[in-house]
Each structure stands twice: as C-alpha cells, then as structure tokens.
C-alpha cells in the first residue's frame, strides 16, 4: 500500500492544527464569528424539532391589556399588585415570582399594602444587573470558578422595604447578536459580591432546597444543574407565546383564578401588555414576552429538561472539530472522483444527523464549530489540488506536443533520415499486433486520475521495451491499448516470426506486471492480444499541422478482432493461421506455452470464418 504524498500529509497536519485551535478556543468561550453562525443553526434545529408541551409546573399570571384596561393605566398601582399576589397566595402556590422591578417608591398606602402581601406569602422579587456591554462578558483574570460569572457594574435592587419582606434574584438573560435569549446566568457578580439569578432563587424557594455552587456546576438539593462556561444555563423554548399556561391577572382581581393552575405550582407574575417592551425574538415567536422566557428557565431548573451544554459537551465539540475536517480532507485526497465526493457527502450527512439527533435529545453539540473547522481546509485543499492538477495538465500537454512530433516511436530514426517516408500510401506485407487491457474503463472510474496515469505509464513502458527488443514499431497507443507493426519501414522475411515472438514476450511481461500491482487493481483487469499477417496500406494521415503514421486494411481489422476472440476463449493470444504459417514451426508459439488449434471462428463484422490458433501460458 502506497503512503500518502507529502502534500497530503502536510494538508492533514495543518487541518488538524486548525481544528484543534478552534476547539481549544471553544473550550474557553464562544468564538464570536462561530457563535453568530451557531445562533442561526440553533434556531434551525429548534424549528426542526417543533414545539412541544412543557411540564405542568409553572403558571404565568400576566398583567396584560385587559388587566391594564381595568386598572385604567400601566404600570398597575401597587395596591392592585398586592391584591393579585393575595389572590394567588390564597390558592396555595409553591412560590410566587414577581418579574417586575420595584425600584422607586409609590404612594405610601400602596407600598404598605404590597409590603404586607409580600410578608404573608413566599415571594421572590426581580433585580437587574447593569453591564458595560449589551452582552454579559465573562472575565478570565482568575482561575477561581466564580471569577468566570457575568460581571455587572452594579445591581438594581428592589426598595429596601420590599427586599426585607421577600427574597430577590437577578433577572437578566444573555442574548445572541440577534437578540434571542440563549442562556440564563445562574450567578452574577459585581465586585466581590455574588448574587443568584431570579430563576435560581425562585426554584430554591419553591423546593425549599439549598443551592450549592461547585467548581463546574450548581446543585439544588441533590440535583445537579448542567451549566456552560460562567454558570450559564442554556434555554430551549417549548413553543410560541402562550405555550406555558398564561392566565390574565384580571382573573386574580376578580377572584376567578382556576385553583388547579395555581395550587402546588410556581406562579410567575409578569407584564405582557402591548407596548410594555419586555419581549424577545425566539425561533417560534418574534415577540415572546420576557416573563415567558423567565418561566421557561424556571421550568428547566425544576424538570431538568433543558439543553445540556457543559464542559463535557464542549470537549465532544473539540473532537468533532478535529475529526470531521481530517476525515473530509482525507477522503478528498484519497478519492477525488464521483465516488469520493459521494463518500464525503455521506460523512457530512451522518455528522448532521448525529448533531440534530443529539439536539433533539437535549444535548447541544455545536454545529458551527465543525463547519468552521472543515470548510476552510477543504476549500484550500481542493483549490491546491486543482492548481496542481492544472500544472500537471500543462506539463502533460507540453509532453504530448513533443511526443506528437514522432507519431510512431519505432520509426523515429527512419523519419529523421527520410522526411518523405510514406508521403504516398504503400501496399506491403506486414504483421500486425494489437494488445489491450481488459476492464480498464471501469477501473479508471474508481481509482482516480493519478493512479490511472501511473498504471498506463507502466503499461506503455513494458510494451515499448518488448516491441523495441523484437524489432517492431508502435504506430499508436490508444488509451489502454497499442497497435504494433512488423514490416516498417521495410518488410523482412522474419516479420511474422518476430511478431509471434513479441506476442509471447508481451504476454509474459503482462503477467509479471499484473502480479506486482495491488490486489484491488490486479483482480479487476487482464489483457488480450491478437495478431495477423497480410497486406496492409501504410500511409500518413492528417493535415499539414499534424500527421500520424498508421496502417489500414483488412489485415489490421482482423488483428484487432482477434483480441475479442482471445478474450472470449480465455486465451492470452489469438493468432491467425496465416501468421503462424509465415512464422514457421520453430517460432515462439510452438516452442513455449500451450498452442491449440486450428479453430474455425467467425469475426464480428466479417463474413465467413477464419482459421485461428489460441495460445496460453502452461502455468
């Protein structure tokens, strides 16, 4: 088995380095350009998966247009907000999450009523972080895990009286460049201060379980929460607006809340009023209310049905970033025919199916990273191969032009001495030999142009050596075959015997040559030889710019047809009776191998029959 050429090994090494570099960068954080593509591909995979019903754990009580209309304005007076909380609390929820910022004081009566409502039930309030950029960045100036959480300039917290009456958490979400929420940070920092997220605080309150921060994940009680770099929890949306059960807050004011939707549920109060501004684009809905984003994260934390994207998943991404491009480039270098391209396409489709299936089952493998690792090396390698092929083609064209100056290699010396040789057609006796490779066309489609070139060069070399040694002249190489004449430039009495000897020598050389070829090649090809002796018409054919010395006539046609006779009878050589009579009983076919005949046979395209002999190697 031949080792790959140096340029292929260099291409594979550079491909591995490129994929490994991207993978290592991905282990630390998202790569901005790759991350933008990943956002689009994530939307695609979400859409392919379709919407589905979320677990019945969370109910949204929405301050919607109807609630605002009844109240007469928006935001709601805090006294009415207190009534909504009391109405919910009366039905026994596990916890109430108030997704609203209570930053400024209102009228004293309303604030006092809300304060008392917060004290009477288990309520979690929302705070917010102010960041120097719209996207929360992670700092890497320390190896401590908590140093990698989103760092805010400051926190906007509820008024002190409300903060004393209830717990609170930071409600920020992390979006991609298009504004789609992708993660909910579980922890936030500002200076040395660490605060839990709103969703994490709500779930801890609802389950009465302690939250524990570990080096690479978070635990609520005994349950581990899979998080990405910086304790980010990926979001996987259930569907469009309203997929998580939503009830108008006006039902709480009217005492019409359904008990089954509130009892033992986490209830999230938030605004969905038109013009409220707290909306996000998602794969299922261009204006999903922020309260539903928060409710989605709370459901993930309780049910454990969110996407898993942690350090282990990022390591799998790294393996794909190295393995996929190596496989694609390796296949392109191994087989650049249609079969090779189909194989590459198959590999890519298998990878895509694995990626989509993993996403559907809750594992967020990166799609953009393997693409970014594969496309540039594949394109560069393909372009380099195309350039090299064009250089080879140009070199072969130059060689072809040189070779075309001597149409028959065995006649080159005579042509140099006599430029007028065969300027007019000549009728004379000659022996004609044809040799051809069986199965070459099918093989050439499978092994590619480089291997085809090497194979033909080996064939041409051995034919040229044996014909020259036997005193013949090769008038042409015809792809995977050759036409040989014995009788030019001048006929000799030994032409038939020389042709017969050449046929036996060519058969022996072909057997030896096939024996050293790879088994996958040798098993698919063979050879056939046909020879005849008679009158030919030798001439130059062509125009003034290019001429070819050749022979025509019935003798040439019969010799060519005898190759088919040899192949159909599983013989190596088919010889006409005329050639053997002219060669004599002491010629090579009688002395070596096994000669059977005479046999009467018909030839394709020729009336009547012809007496022929078949020669095989005794081994």
What features would you describe in this structure?
The chain has about 625 residues and is α+β, with helices and mostly antiparallel strands. Helices cover about 45% and strands about 20% of the residues. Strand 2, helix 5 and strand 3 form a beta-alpha-beta unit. Helix 1 runs antiparallel to helix 11. The chain starts with 5 loop residues before the first helix and ends with a strand. About 0% of the residues have low confidence.
What is the overall pLDDT average? 86
Unreliable sequence segments: 134-142, 402-407
Q: Which structural class is indicated by helix and strand composition?
A: alpha+beta
Our measurement of the CA-to-CA distance between the termini, rounded to an integer number of angstroms, reads 27 Å
* Fraction of helical residues: 40-55%
Summarize this structure briefly.
The chain is an alpha+beta fold. Helix content is 46%, strand content 22%. It has 20 helices and 25 strands.
């Amino acid at each position: 088995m031949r080792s790959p050429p140096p340029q292929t090994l260099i291409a594979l090494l550079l491909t591995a380095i490129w994929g490994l570099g991207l993978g290592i960068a991905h282990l630390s954080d998202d790569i901005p350009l790759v991350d933008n593509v990943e956002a689009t591909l994530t939307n695609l995979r979400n859409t392919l998966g379709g919407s589905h019903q979320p677990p019945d754990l969370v109910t949204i009580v929405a301050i919607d247009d109807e609630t605002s209309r009844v109240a007469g304005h928006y935001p709601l007076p805090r006294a009415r907000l207190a009534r909504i909380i009391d109405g919910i609390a009366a039905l026994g929820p596990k916890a109430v999450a108030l997704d609203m910022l209570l930053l400024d004081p209102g009228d004293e009566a309303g604030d006092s009523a809300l304060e008392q409502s917060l004290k009477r039930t288990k309520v979690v309030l929302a705070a917010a972080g102010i960041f120097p950029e719209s996207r929360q960045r992670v700092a890497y100036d320390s190896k401590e895990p908590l140093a990698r959480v989103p760092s805010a300039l400051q926190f906007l917290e509820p008024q002190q009286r409300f903060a004393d009456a209830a717990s609170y958490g930071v409600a920020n979400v992390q979006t991609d460049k298009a504004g789609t929420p992708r993660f909910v940070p579980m922890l936030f920092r500002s200076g040395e201060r660490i605060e839990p997220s709103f969703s994490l605080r709500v779930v801890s309150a609802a389950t009465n379980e302690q939250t524990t921060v570990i080096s690479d994940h978070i635990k609520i009680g005994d349950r581990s929460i899979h998080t990405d770099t910086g304790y980010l929890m990926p979001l996987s949306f259930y569907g469009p607006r309203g997929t998580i059960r939503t009830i108008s807050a006006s039902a709480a004011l009217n005492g019409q809340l359904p008990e089954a939707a509130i009892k033992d549920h986490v209830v999230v109060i938030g605004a969905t009023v038109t013009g409220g501004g707290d909306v996000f684009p998602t794969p299922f809905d261009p204006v999903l209310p922020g309260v539903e984003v928060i409710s989605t994260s709370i459901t993930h934390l309780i049910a454990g049905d969110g996407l898993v994207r942690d350090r282990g998943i990022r390591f799998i991404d790294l393996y794909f970033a190295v393995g996929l491009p190596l496989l694609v480039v390796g296949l392109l270098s191994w087989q650049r025919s249609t079969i090779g391209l189909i194989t590459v396409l198959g590999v890519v489709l298998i990878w895509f199916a694995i990626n989509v299936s993993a996403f559907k089952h809750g594992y967020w493998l990166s799609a953009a990273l393997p693409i970014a690792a594969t496309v540039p090396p594949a394109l560069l390698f393909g372009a380099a191969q195309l350039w090299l092929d064009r250089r080879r083609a140009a070199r072969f064209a130059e060689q072809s032009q040189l070779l075309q100056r001597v149409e028959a290699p065995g006649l080159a010396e005579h042509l140099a001495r006599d430029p007028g040789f065969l300027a007019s057609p000549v009728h004379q006796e000659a022996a004609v030999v044809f040799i051809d490779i069986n199965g070459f066309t099918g093989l050439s489609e499978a092994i590619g142009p480089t291997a085809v070139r090497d194979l033909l060069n080996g064939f041409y070399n051995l034919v040229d050596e044996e014909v020259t040694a036997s005193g013949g002249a090769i008038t042409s190489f015809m792809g995977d075959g050759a036409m040989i004449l014995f009788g030019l430039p001048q006929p000799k009495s030994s032409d038939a015997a020389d042709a017969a000897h050449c046929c036996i020598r060519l058969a022996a050389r072909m057997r030896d040559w096939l024996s050293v070829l790879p088994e996958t090649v040798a098993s698919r090809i063979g050879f056939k030889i046909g020879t005849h002796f008679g009158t030919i018409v030798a001439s130059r054919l062509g125009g003034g710019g290019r001429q070819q010395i050749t022979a025509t006539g019935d003798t040439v046609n019969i010799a060519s047809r005898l190759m088919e006779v040899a192949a159909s009878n599983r013989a190596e050589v088919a010889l006409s009776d005329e050639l053997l009579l002219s060669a004599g009983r002491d010629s090579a076919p009688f002395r070596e191998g096994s000669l059977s005949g005479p046999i009467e046979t018909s030839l394709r395209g020729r009336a009547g029959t012809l007496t022929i002999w078949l020669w095989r190697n005794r081994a």
